[in-house]
User: Fold this.
Amino acid sequence: MKYRNLGNSGLIISEISLGTWLTAGLGVEKEIAFECMKSALDLGVNFIDTADMYNRGESEIVVGEFVKTIKREEVVLGTKVFGPMTDHWMTQGLSHRHIRNACEGSLKRLQTDYIDLFQCHRYDIDTPLEEVCFAMNNLIDRGMILHWGVSQWTAVQITNAVRICEKNGWRKPISNQPVYNMLNRSLETDVMDVCANEGLGLVVYSPLAQGLLSGKYKKNEVPADSRLASEVMNNWFPVKRMNDEYFAMQDALQEIAKSENCTLSELALAWILNRKPITSCITGASKVIQVQTNVKATELTLSNSTMEKIELILNNAPVDQYTGARVGFGIIKRGY
Assistant:
């Protein structure tokens, strides 16, 4: 396993981390979730990511029970606040009140004295940003959390938060958790550059597009034990991408993977980790073999030539609004 600093902080996390959105406390039995987490830690993964709203606390409960079986100082815990925890309208958002209540609830469910990384799950248009920044700084001052970050915030929202913290002498966010994979590259438009410039590490989720980029889905073929086949875990699966164009792309990527002596999932993860601002890929797993396969991606180094071949196959980097040219991260911008 390889490790990277999370933004401009001393927090060091593994390049492959473990997420719990549709698995722990929901899609798989607790024993299997434990096996996946233990396997991940045995292979060098040190960052486990969850959120209070994942099955309304059930995911945090399972993670907390697992953490009690290991040494707390050997795992980095990340969780999030924003989503509704009950049907009452007051149990959501990023008001100072809800952030404090949510943090206390997460600490109890995770059975820990502190949270390593407490993240704003989304941006709250109903709460002044200065209040959000103060609330996070206050939690750090009280020792309830060590660092804070954001998830799916825009470049402007991230920049504004950093400036507010600098102005008031508060602790700045150290991370952003956006969706990012070979099929969804909107992050490259401006957020990736802003995070790199402002010192925020990127811990990206859905790096395999919920398993679509694992290579196990064939045209008109859905494995019986797959996420898409599960009535519990198929929420928001990118079925709209399962068309002739995608499967042709998948075949071409499979050829690249074959030449690199790796699986398609390893190739997809290594492609992400090849981008400097990325700190870690948050991967989900309902089987130990998936954990083992994902971790192998850190052993794969992609040459510039291979990256260029992949770029030609994908042909989906963000487009410049004036010229129509691809302007994704790492692509040299020329002329006007």
